[in-house]
Amino acid sequence: MATAPIRKGTTKRKPSKVQVFKPKQFIVYPAHGVGQVTAVEKETVAGFDIEVYVVSFEQEKMILRVPTNKASLSGMRSLSNENILKDSFTTLKGRARIKRTMWSRRAQEYEGKINSGELILISEVVRDLYRTDAQPEQSYSERQLYERALDRMVREVAAIKKVDRDVAIEEIMDTLNTARAKAAAKAAKEAAKNADNDDGEEEAAA
Prior knowledge:
Number of helices: 5
CATH architecture of the largest domain: Up-down Bundle
Distance between the termini: 80 Å
Strand order of the largest sheet: 1-5-4-3-2-6
Radius of gyration: 22 Å
Number of strands: 6
């Protein structure tokens, strides 16, 4: 079992109010993703009585104990609402935004987004690092970050929709594949149009 540290500098957003969590409630903890509150207990630490949330992360087979008065500061939050869920899928449909900077800097930014625990930021990482069969393969480090982000997103989507992991990942992959297929079709159409225009200009010049 571990006691949760207070998160420092992972996100600029400050909690607007103290959230209260109940046993059996699913939550998101920035460093570990989706977990479930199994109990609220009192402990004595260094002579002080404190109340803690006992949070179980089934996939990691880990138990985390988070002081109730520090939960919001640590970034622990409820599952995203329907609006945020919708926005996260809209993000997946968008165009990948790859900055022209060194990979080490981009990797650090991706790490920050994943560790923020924010669903939309995590979906941005999934979108940007996703590759179709027609695209160049990912490097090992890219693949590692992509899989971490995808796992975080899948687990939260599954918890929000109350579906199995397989159902959640299928919906996410279908969204990504459909968006990339549409983008490719649009690019091909524009290329064909430009080619026709070039041929017309050449004929006129002749």
